[in-house]
Amino acid sequence: MNAPLTALAISCTLKPSPAESSSDLLGSQILAALAEHGVSGDLVRAVDHVISPGVEINMGGDDQWPALRERVLAADILVFVTPTWMGQHSSVAQRVLERLDAELSETDDSGRPILFDKVAISGVVGNEDGAHHISAIVFQALDDIGYTVPAQTSVYWNGEAMKGIDYKDLDETPEAVAQATATAARNAAHLARLLKADRYPAE
Fold first, then answer.
1. Looking at the whole model, is its pTM more than 0.90?
2. What three-state secondary structure class fits 12?
3. Omega before 18 within 30 of 0, i.e. cis
4. Contact at 8 Å (CB) between 146 and 119?
5. Are 158 and 126 in contact (CB under 8 A)?
6. For residues 61 and 17, what is the distance between their CA atoms, to the nearest angstrom?
7. CA–CA gap between residue 161 and residue 61 (Å, rounded)
8. Distance of alpha carbon 13 from alpha carbon 11, whole angstroms
9. What is the share, in percent, of the chain residues with pLDDT greater than 90?
10. What is the pLDDT of residues 136-149, one digit of tens each?
11. How far is CA 141 from CA 15, 111, 137, in A?
């Protein structure tokens, strides 16, 4: 019997709610595809929360990252979605990655990194090149802190350069994006289930 799994999608759009967001749309589509494989999930828009600069678990003051961190730790699958600006991931995405850096020193009761046995999906949208570059940065950062990257779990859409059409403005999801989303969801759910049943060994 398939074990139930959970996912958290973090949208790193620069737009606070309730503005429409292409990153939110892609994140929601990935969550919907994961649901077809028995994965329940939620999406959070990082910019709607106070995420203080720093690389500690709790930066004090009005820092709201600790509450978001608990949701990250509770999820079997992290869906990390960012827009492309100037060929790079967003500043919000960088802030989230920097806060996740604190997990490098966090271990479980067996001495294993606390994020072992969890998998990650990358989502990138934008009207310029950079999706492969951004996914490489995101996956390397998430791998460093313990996430496992399943096969073909980079989902992206690049619009025509220097044009005003965003992903959210499309009449329908391009077939290539839909196929990539389906593959990413299937592979991520499969690997997350395997790791939940048979964890990485301790030292």
1. yes
2. coil
3. yes
4. no
5. yes
6. 23
7. 41
8. 6
9. 93
10. 999 999 999 999 99
11. 24, 21, 6
